[in-house]
Each structure stands twice: as structure tokens, then as C-alpha cells.
Amino acid sequence: MGTPPRLGAHRLLGEIGRGGTAVVHSAIDAFGREVVVKRLRPEIAADPAARRRLAREIAAQRRVRSPYVPRLLDGRADADPPYLVMAYAPGCPLSELVAGHGPPRPDRLRRLARRLALAVAAVHDAGVLHRDVSPGNVMVHGERPALIDFGLAHDAAEAQTTRPGMVVGTPAYLAPEVIEGGPATAASDVFAWAATIAFAATGRPPFGRGPLEGVCLRIVSGTADLEGVEEPLAGLLRLGLDREPRRRPSARWFAGALAPAGMGAPGRGRCAAA
Questions:
Q1: How many whole angstroms separate alpha carbon 65 and alpha carbon 136?
Q2: Do the domain assignments include residue 111?
Q3: pTM for the full predicted model
Q4: How far apart are CA 211 and CA 141, in angstroms?
Q5: Is residue 271 part of a domain?
Q6: What tens digit of pLDDT does each residue of 69-79 get?
Q7: Annotated binding site for ATP, which residues?
Q8: Of 169, 166, 120, 110, which Cα lies nearest the Cα of 147?
Q9: Domain boundary among 45, 69, 87
Q10: DSSP state at residue 271
Q11: Alpha-carbon distance 110 to 255, whole Å?
């Protein structure tokens, strides 16, 4: 049948992504703005659980206000097809940027790290956990990151646990407590932020690549590879990658520490999992 030319008030321009549950389109809204439309695939939309997950995603992203998180403009989990609409985030994924051009120079890296920390802090300030902060979910345009994909996001007040060995998120960036089946917390997002910035700094996931079991074992044992990361950023990342969630400072603290006046020897501030 092909792509419908419109979805609600939005004129679809073309498909820009496709996953197991949803299709993503570039589009123009009723005000002439370029936007992104995510719609559930027809076979998935028939599942009430999939609609509930989309409703959670809509509710979570609607609460977040940050220049580094695309604003949710519209969304209906009860529509046919169910969809959400967000502001367009230009650029390319951090994963592709680093793979194609290598790590950014130190001053650009610091600004990227700080702005992404501000994005994560805004998510937490809204009472939301992202649960999938990773290089593939960070769009970069110039020096401006945009944290995208709230498909796994949850209200921070709702306890979410996983069975040990069950992976929810991007494996190489999961916190050890999540891998072990514990609840995701703000500290888990902080760990993922630190792992993402370590990747940006080196071009390597800090716990390596390869079979899932091996990556998870290295994360749980706390053996991060930060070779090549310059100080004081390396010290900050070690704090963010601490094996114990309660010892990781908050995303807001990291944003302050990464401000030009704050880039000295790292100390500890308010923890993300207090």
C-alpha cells in the first residue's frame, strides 16, 4: 500500500528509519516546521502492550524541557496508527560521527560531554529515566547534541527491574546493577552517559566489543578502558563509571564540573542515587 502521504496534520516526506516496532519519517507539520514522525508498524499496533509502551514514551518525553532534547509536539497512542511527533534534530548519530571522523578534539569533547550531561539532568529533573543513553541515541549537529529515543523511558517513581541476563537497552552502555537485574535509577543513566562520553573520547566502548556475555562480565567487574582519555575528563568518567550507583554524582553535578570554571581535579558532589 506504500507510505501514506499524511498522518493527522503532518505531511510525510520520506522514511528515515525502520525498526522492529516502528517506522520513522521526516515530515512537515501544519505550521510548516520540519518534524519527525514515529508510527507503530501495523502488525505491532494491534498489540495493546505496544500501545501502552508508546503512551509511556509520549508521557515521558512530553515532560522533558531542554535545548538538548527534541521537544515532543504531538502524540496519540490511541490513533490508527499510533504515533508521536517531535521536533527535528539535525545532524548524525554520535556513533557514526566518531566512526567516520574519529574523536573530537578535547575542547569540543568537553562541550559535548557537558551538554549531554545537561540533557540527562533535564530528563531526571522531569522525573524520568531514559534507560538507553548511548552513542546511537545522541544526534550531533556541530557541537550541539540531542538526546533522542525515549522508547525505554520510564517514570523514575516506578520501580523497573529486569531478570539477570535479560538485556533492555544498548548492552555496552548498561550499568552493572541493571545487568544484574536491579532497578534502573538516575545513576544508571549517569553510568551510560559516562560510557557514551568515553566512546566519544576514544572511539571504543569502554568495556569493549564482542560477545554479549564478555561485555556484560567486564561491565559487572568494573574494568573500563579509558586509555587515551585526557585528565581531568578521565577522572570525571571514572566517577561516572563507578561500580557502585550510590557513589556516582548526578548528571547535574557533572554538567557543573564540566563548565569551564569547574574543570579542575574532580571531587564528589551530590550523588545520582542518594
A1: 21
A2: yes
A3: 0.90
A4: 32
A5: no
A6: 999 999 999 99
A7: 38
A8: 120
A9: 87
A10: B
A11: 10
pLDDT value, residue 66: 98
Find out whether 109 and 233 touch, Cβ atoms under 8 Å.
Answer: yes
pLDDT band for 2, please (50, 70, 90 cuts): low
Please report, for the domain that includes residue 18, its CATH number.
Answer: 3.30.200.20
Look up 47 and say whether it is catalytic: no
Among 31, 39, 33, 148, smallest CA distance to 89 is for 148
Assess if residue 140 is contained within a domain. Answer: yes
Convert the pLDDT of each residue in 13-40 to its tens digit. Answer: 989 988 889 999 999 999 999 999 999 9
Say if residues 128 and 153 touch (Cβ distance below 8 Å): yes
Same domain, 18 and 125: no
Q: Of the ranges 4-8, 57-61, 216-220, 230-234, which one carries the lowest mean pLDDT score?
A: 4-8
Q: Domain total for the chain?
A: 2
Helices 94-101 and 186-202, axial angle in degrees (round to 10) = 20
Query: 74, 80, 107, 132: which one is catalytic?
Result: 132
* 58 and 192 both lie in a single domain: no
For residue 226, what is its C-alpha cell?
Answer: 579509558
Residue 235 lies in a domain: yes
Q: Mark whether 83 and 190 lie in a shared domain.
A: no
Distance between CA atoms of residues 163 and 18, nearest Å? 28
CATH of the domain at 222: 1.10.510.10
Q: Domain of 116? A: 92-262
d(CA 129, CA 162): 15
What cell does 151 get? 522508547
| Four-CA torsion 33, 144, 18, 122, nearest 10 degrees | -90
